[in-house]
Amino acid sequence: MSQAESVLGIHHVTAIASDPQRNIDFYTGVLGLRMVKVTVNFDDPTTYHLYYGDEVGHPGTILTFFPWPGAPRGRHGTGQLTVTSFSIPEGAVDYWKRHFREHGITFKETDRKFDEQVLSFADPDGLKLELIASPEAGSREAWKDGPIPVEYGVRGFRGVTLLEEGYERTARLLSDTLGFRQVGEDDNRFRFEAGEDGLGTFVDVVCPPTVPRGLVSAGTIHHVAWRTADDEQQRAWRTRIAGVGLDVTPVIDRKYFHSIYFREPGGVLFEIATDAPGFTVDEPVQELGSALVLPPWLEPLRNDIQKALPPVRLAAVVRAAE
Ligand code: ZN
């Protein structure tokens, strides 16, 4: 079996929210992502699992949440993925500044090397996000039936930032095991890339001198998943990761993809997820995210599950103003 030289970039990022309705309103109503799937946490069916992305939820566009109503805020710190960055087209920055002002969202323009215009902001739970204007954004389509005019819309991920106590072991895992290339450096920020098209392919490792460890709760990231093409490649990844002495789970069926999980040496939970079968496996494209979907093994419990979940209003489809 031949092993791919690298993971193919980001598959999805999963975070913790508090109030599910506020989460839905922000990601569909303000950021203009599509609600791609409404299901439950398969490991805890009393919690929603909300998936946002592009029209079909392509790998590289998917941000997902476990909303824990009433959960206290977590703490951003080392051993965490602290910033999730989306791509927007190069001409879209002024539009987003106006849009954020209209919605009362505080943002700042961050200067960075790597030739990037960056808008930094946070979601209602304090999750740190960025919009980065990038030349590659044009090659991907934004969700066309959301509130953001399609020419300015979010084009999936640009990259993620890992905050780490130390550099060496995480950097070695990224380059020697997962196949990332180191492509840049800006002060204590080290940029790695895997995959080809610049969309969802970057990982920045930032090593601050004295920052306490992060704590997972509302407004923090739970894990990041990297893409692999298929089940055969995934088995090869599993062998390679176990081979460097990391504890890796067996392959787990997540219905929309197949997953393995392991913790990188700095403490961030990594997953490797297959591109297939994708989100249209149990709903047609037009209906994605329009109703609660359960996997076959939870379907017999639907009534009890629905009673335990807080009621939510799903995304109203608002056409972009022409
Ligand atoms: Zn995941």
Fold and architecture overview:
It is a single chain. The chain is α+β, with helices and mostly antiparallel strands and 322 residues long. The chain is built from five helices and 16 strands. The strands form two sheets. Strands 2-3-4-1-13-16-15-14 form an eight-stranded mixed beta sheet. An eight-stranded mixed beta sheet has the order 6-7-8-5-9-12-11-10, covered by helices on one side. The longest helix has 13 residues, at 231-243. The chain is globular, with a radius of gyration of 19 Å. Mean pLDDT is 94; it is low at 317-322. The structure holds zinc ion (ZN). Zinc ion binds at residues 12, 14, 223, 225, 271.
Helix-strand layout with pairing:
Blueprint: E1 10-17, H1 20-30, E2 34-41, E3 44-53, E4 62-67, E5 80-88, H2 93-102, E6 108-112, E7 116-122, E8 128-133, E9 157-163, H3 168-177, E10 181-186, E11 189-193, E12 202-206, E13 221-228, H4 231-243, E14 252-253, E15 258-263, E16 269-274, H5 302-308
Parallel strand pairs: 1-4, 5-8, 9-12, 13-16
Antiparallel strand pairs: 1-13, 2-3, 3-4, 5-9, 6-7, 7-8, 10-11, 11-12, 14-15, 15-16
Bound molecules: zinc ion (ZN).
Zinc ion is lined by residues 12, 14, 223, 225, 271.
Q: Name the bound molecules.
A: zinc ion
Q: Which runs of at least 5 residues are low in confidence (pLDDT < 50)?
A: 317-322
The number of helices is: 5
**Shape descriptor:** globular
Rg computed from alpha carbons, rounded to a whole number of angstroms? 19 Å
Q: Helicity, in percent?
A: 10-25%
Strand percentage, roughly? 25-35%
Average predicted local confidence, pLDDT: 94
The secondary-structure element order is EHEEEEHEEEEHEEEEHEEEH
Please outline the major beta sheet. Answer: 8 strands, mixed
